[in-house]
Fold each of these.
Amino acid sequence: MDMPSLKTRVSAEEWQLRCDLAACYRLVAHYGWSDLVFTHITARVPGPEHHFLINPYGLMFDEITASSLVKVDAECNKVIDSPFPVNPAGFIIHSAVHEAREDAGCVLHTHTRAGVAVSAQQGGVLPISQQSTFVLAGLAYHEYEGVAFRPDEKPRLQADLGSANFLMLRNHGLLTVGPTIADAFLSMYVFESTCQIQLSAQVGGPLIEVNPQIVAGVAESMRVQTSGLGGAFVWPALLRKLDRLGADYSR
């Protein structure tokens, strides 16, 4: 959907953030992680105002552009006028994370089939793949409390998340936290791959689990060396992929 460009109405820093977030929405759609219009990816706008960018509710993820993203405050009130609605109920989970985690530059939430399936398994993520070791290095769980639209759930979600960057919402889906959009996306790529691999492996015979010492070593390595997976390394290549696909997200 076309709308006037906001490029001249926002700072250069915010415009770049908008382009990256719109690209993230397009990539989520490309990889098949979207659920029609029903999940969200949010990014914190730099500055003391505690403003955030969120998707215009009702647009498919492959329609979202930098200018169509809606800027809201911590209560999901629009900061810049937009012809598109927002979904305050959908912002509950995201606002809880942004509120509790100053390092949460981006929060990405999905309802994929593989993610929901593993979230419903009693054992959760199993240490059976290299991908799973990265997830288990910083994984937390939050029990299902029904559709997440009640503010009173926020303290429990914040307590469950703690300092983790991967959150499995039981019977619901997956969530990743990153200091940047690139980091949150790469974490979700690994999280989703972990769940897909687990479901595929469970169809076969007995599973071989990774040595717990190796899992513990990955966690320590990520904490000391990178504090994450290093999304900035792969992000330029992902943007080039979108360019080859002709995605017009940066308008």
Note: Helices lie at 12-30, 91-100, 113-119, 130-136, 154-161, 181-202, 212-226, 231-245.
Amino acid sequence: MTNLANRLKNARISKGLTILDVSTKTGISTGNLSELENGKHDPSAKALVLLSELYEVSIDWLLKGEHARPENISCEQKTNIICPPEELMLFLSLITEAWFNGDSKIHGWIIVQLRRSFPEIAELVKKKAALKSKA
């Protein structure tokens, strides 16, 4: 399976969608979606746009596993956006790539490391998960 196929499947799963859900929302047949996720063929430009919008990811990320930032617009020109340092963006990009390309062992390792590194955020996640399970 290609990295593109992995990213398509993992993006769908992370949104809590089934292939049938995606088909209904995009008009792409379930068979075509299954073939895309199994790496049998690459998506058309139209399918890439539809899937990137539905999954709320960039086409660059789907194709290359990279998060693009417009090069001709500086952070200062964007309103209401705090631009993180490049090193942070690189960390986030590589962690995201490891997650979507990894197996359950990698997923567990990433979560353990995040919990250890950010205990306050881990507590917030735990509280939000508890509230969500009650709803």
Note: Residues 85-134 form one domain.
Amino acid sequence: MISEEVDFCLEATKEQMNSAIAHLELELTKIRAGKANPKILMGVMVDYYGSMTPLNQVANISAPDPRTIAVQPWERQMIGPIERAIRNANLGFNPDNNGEIVRINVPPLTEERRKEYVKQSKSVGETAKVAIRNARREAIEEFKKMVKNDGLSEDAQKDAEAEVQKLTDSFTKKIDEMLAVKEKEIMTI
């Protein structure tokens, strides 16, 4: 009975940590790495007949070459709103349209800009690590409550805390690996 509660708490902690990793992946895709990546436009919202809609739901987004992102609206009259939405998203892009497609030229990154993006990705990574540590802290507090209220033995508590620490270490290592990959991607010309 008690071990079920411990298992449930461990599963919930693991789920929290997984969602921190998923959020980190999303945030890292938004950070530009010098070459055109359609995911850069993931957060862009377009005014689609009065309702704010994600860009990828009103157009096809592709990267025909390493320096260009092409946005092909499904409805021709959406060209203007799409172009405005990209400008207003403050991504540093100047979209251009030929009446059918919105093209975005992705300029090469300067050394200074690359270093800023590395800093930005490390900051996002640190936020994910904080979320992981918070999940660990909550789980340990939960185990302490179980000892106090539910009669969980102190040995079982120590084992559960060790398990949470293993999870924390493995997720932190995963974050470090993701950041190393992103940094290499940003710094590669």
Note: Residues 111-150 form the longest helix (40 residues).
